[in-house]
Design brief:
The complex is a heterodimer. By secondary structure, chain A is α/β, with parallel strands linked by helices. Chain A has helices at 41-47, 74-79, 96-106, 111-124, 140-152, 170-185, 197-203; strands at 2-10, 16-25, 30-34, 56-61, 64-65, 81-84, 158-162, 189-193, 206-211, 214-219. Chain A folds into two domains: 1-80 and 157-226, 3-Layer(aba) Sandwich (Rossmann fold), CATH 3.40.50; 90-155, no CATH class. The relative contact order of chain A is 0.20. The model of chain A has no long low-confidence stretch (mean pLDDT 91). The chains are: A alpha/beta, B alpha+beta. Chains A and B meet through α2 and α3 of A and α1, α2 and α9 of B.
Chain lengths: 226, 324
């Protein structure tokens, strides 16, 4: 599903965020990405929906070599990759409903289907009763769940999450991770960056460890820690 | 499992009927158009002022060109009245005069001719000048026999001049005069005015493009976060561009509507004195309005220039906003 082959990313000015990164995530896997801040987790995630292009190496996503993807095709790639951010990236002048509906509107979904699918997504994250609320009136955990609903409403085969529990307390964090596991159980490939190694080990999934832009560990965690 | 998911989704995409695609596309445009109008109406004062600037900028050239059109219409009435006066030798007999008139009438560029005998001319002069006493003092009639030649309307000025020269060479003709020079001068002045009007129109059109461009640039800045998020979740450039283009088009249309109101309102203000003038000169209505064609043209110009301005702004500023 996701294949990195010798991927490097160097920023103008010489800072090397990623060096010689090679790994593979199979369809239907849930994989964590861990390491200290500045280890390159975010950069790695940003390369997948082509928010940035790698300086070296190649990335193959679902059989598509991203280096050969034309600029004008990028939006269609992003529609197949659900993204979740630590700072939610919601539109604060619109209701929860409008935020979650946005990907469907962009994809040209018939108006008759939008309501049904938005409510299904909100139901999955447990926020069906808040659809008319504005994001500022929600707690951090609830806002994150709106972000997740927005990412899954188009049913993308891949979900990427960058520190989705960064600002949440442990209890809420586990709740959010539980949601990702639920999506994974129905076949979605999930890649989550998180510095919370304790939580990751407790959940018991495969995790990749990054340090200074290099892959330093690929652990198949059978959940013995939890 | 993931593969199965994908196949399912691609199947639904393929089976989507073309009509549904088209309807979704239409709905997208409608949403962008209505959304842009909604944003305009929410900031009523600011968008009103922008539309006002556009209205004035569109009204000025429209009014100028309309005035010229009116002037030209009247001038062309005078132009059709171009006539060649052939003053004949004094000793020419009425029969000879009539014969000459009929001979000239055979020419294709001549519409009709009129003969005026010295007696008729004197009578006409008496009537018009009301100088009976002065005329009575004359020993004999000083007026020569006259043949007035009316060229076919629409004959080019050069051809009329050539005809005048040729008729002037006839032995019976003492002098040939063409009453055209002042019409030509007027036409030259109007041609110059028309050029100036278009020059001003082009400059003001440029101003409209820049005003709309700047307004749209601000709108883009204000909605930066929305644009970033839309790009993040797969909005195409066309999708992001659309509401801004509609916003520019709405501004142009509002400016056009305002311009028509200004021009027609101005005409209404001038109509009182103008009617009096028309009465005095016994002409038809002096100032006709824009008419449906003119109004549509002003609106079209507004929308076109608005689109142009927003296109420039969108092209320059949207590409610079990328997700970080």
């Amino acid at each position: 599903m996701i294949e990195f082959d010798g991927v490097g990313k160097q920023y103008p000015g010489g800072h090397e965020a990623l060096r010689g990164l090679s790994f593979r995530v199979d369809p239907g896997e849930l994989v964590f990405l861990t390491g200290h801040s500045g280890a390159g987790k975010s950069t790695l995630l940003r390369l997948i929906p082509l928010l940035e292009r790698p300086s070296r190496g190649q990335i193959v996503l679902n059989g598509i070599n991203l280096a050969r993807l034309a600029r004008r095709r990028i939006p269609y790639l992003r529609r197949r990759v659900g993204m979740i951010f630590q700072d939610h990236r919601l539109l604060y002048d619109r209701t929860v409903y409008a935020n979650v509906a946005l990907p469907l509107v962009i994809a040209g979904t018939p108006a008759a289907d939008i309501g049904r699918r938005v409510r299904a997504a909100l139901d999955k994250v447990g926020l069906l009763h808040r659809e008319t609320a504005y994001p500022v009136t929600l707690s951090g955990g609830e806002q994150q769940r709106v972000g997740i609903a927005r990412a899954v409403v188009t049913r993308p085969p891949i979900l990427l999450a960058d520190e989705p529990t960064g600002n949440l307390d442990p209890e809420l964090s586990e709740e959010i991770m539980g949601l990702f596991e639920a999506f994974n159980r129905v076949g979605v490939t999930v890649l989550i960056a998180s510095h919370d190694l304790g939580l990751i080990q407790r959940l018991g999934h495969r995790y990749l460890r990054l340090s200074e832009g290099r892959l330093v560990g690929d652990t198949l965690n059978d959940g013995a820690g939890g | 499992m993931a593969r199965g998911r994908q196949q399912r989704s691609s199947r639904t995409r393929r089976s989507a009927p073309g009509g549904g695609r088209l309807r979704a596309w239409g709905a997208d445009h409608a949403r962008a158009a209505i959304g842009a109008l909604g944003r305009l109406s929410r900031s009523r004062v600011a968008s009103g002022m922008t539309a006002g600037v556009l209205g004035v900028a569109l009204a000025l050239p429209a009014a100028f060109l309309l005035a010229l059109d009116n002037l030209e219409r009247h001038a062309s009435g005078w132009d059709d009245g171009a006539q060649i006066s052939l003053f004949l030798q004094e000793e020419t007999s009425p029969d000879e005069q009539q014969g000459l008139a009929e001979e000239i009438l055979q020419r294709p560029e001549v519409q009709r001719t009129r003969t005026v005998t010295p007696e008729q001319a004197l009578a006409e002069f008496r009537e018009l000048s009301e100088m009976d006493d002065a005329v009575a003092m004359l020993d004999d009639n000083p007026l020569p026999p006259l043949v007035v030649v009316y060229p076919e309307p629409g004959t080019p000025a050069g051809a009329v001049e050539a005809l005048t020269r040729e008729l002037g060479r006839k032995p019976a003709v003492a002098r040939a005069r063409l009453d055209l020079e002042w019409v030509q001068r007027l036409q030259a002045i109007m041609e110059l005015s028309r050029r100036i009007a278009w020059l001003v129109a082009v400059l003001l059109a440029l101003a409209v493009v820049m005003v709309v461009g700047n307004t749209i640039r601000l709108a883009i800045e204000n909605r930066r976060e929305e644009i970033v998020v839309t790009k993040l979740i797969g909005g195409t450039d066309a999708f992001i561009r659309r509401p801004f283009l509609y916003e520019g088009a709405w501004y142009g249309l509002l400016g056009g509507v305002l311009a028509v109101i200004l021009v027609e309102g101005g005409r209404l203000v001038l109509s009182g004195p103008l009617e009096r003038l028309a009465e005095l000169y016994r002409t038809g209505p002096l100032l006709t309005g824009l008419g449906l064609d003119g109004i549509l043209l002003v609106w079209l110009a507004g929308v076109g220039l608005g689109l142009c301005g927003s296109w420039v702004a969108v092209g320059r500023h949207l590409a610079a906003i990328e997700p970080r």
